[in-house]
Design goal:
Elements lengths: L14 E5 L2 E14 L1 E3 L3 E17 L5 E17 L6 E3 L3 E17 L4 E14 L14 H5 L6 E14 L3 E12 L2 E2 L5 E15 L9 E13 L16 E15 L2 E12 L12 E12 L2
Length: about 300
Amino acid sequence: MIAQKLKPQASTGGIDVSGPGLRVERFAYAELGAGQAVGLGNVILNPLLTVGGRATAHSTSFPNWSGDGDLRVIYGKTESSDPVTLRKTTNKPRLQEIRGSGHLIYDFHNDGGIEKVGVGLYTEFARALHSFPRYIPTETDDAYAAEEGDITRSMLNTGVDLRLALRESRIKSTLHNVIFLSGSRIAPNLLTYKPMLGFMWSNEFAITGSIDHPGLSLLTDMDFYFARKAGVGYLNSHDGLGGTKRELDLKYGLAYSFSPKMRMTVQSYGFNNLNRGTSSTLPTGFKDGLRIGMTWALD
């Protein structure tokens, strides 16, 4: 999804907001975009500007507990199809979507913050601010497209999250392994599916400086989703457990920190549908683009 998955990269530092037993770091960010993404309502989204904020919280009374959240709005254009003629329609730029995500994790292994292994809850939500006709593929000749033809204008996904994190002087790596309990996503071919498993892996490599005091950094992200069967069943009705792979999202970029409070990022991304599109044998649907963003730590 846009994700997801349109999620921002972490900044280099934050401002602590001290409270009783709680330490919070807050950030704001803005991204200019060019390209395509998956939009709610099963439309093609052309994000032009994304503005949002995120926060991380750590309990000082219960040091093994931590949480983070992200909230953003997306301004851009959408592409949809006339349901009769299938003629493509491009809608004018406007505020299109509001999206968010969050984790609440308990670390049952914490090697001084260098290595962490924890389990907790994952959630993501999204809401379309306008209603447009969906984008209808011109080739819908099999049951794959018909089985998952829902139009999704809002989204609320929940799951159990097993997180593994590694932090060294020049490398920071986080892997979220999510077992989805409820919800649905829109694949890059603009068909709705119900996720079963998700693997979200993000990395930062400090080229100059360090993770705590970076200059230039390399950023990578990979999100991999398995689908479950549409309807009341859990496994994929056509492909079985071995064929439930559905979506692969990749993102690469560079970040440069001007100061502990300000960072610039340049990233390219690609969202790829893996199966269960308009063909029963070949993947269809690919969305890609470029983002340039700034992140600020808030006072």
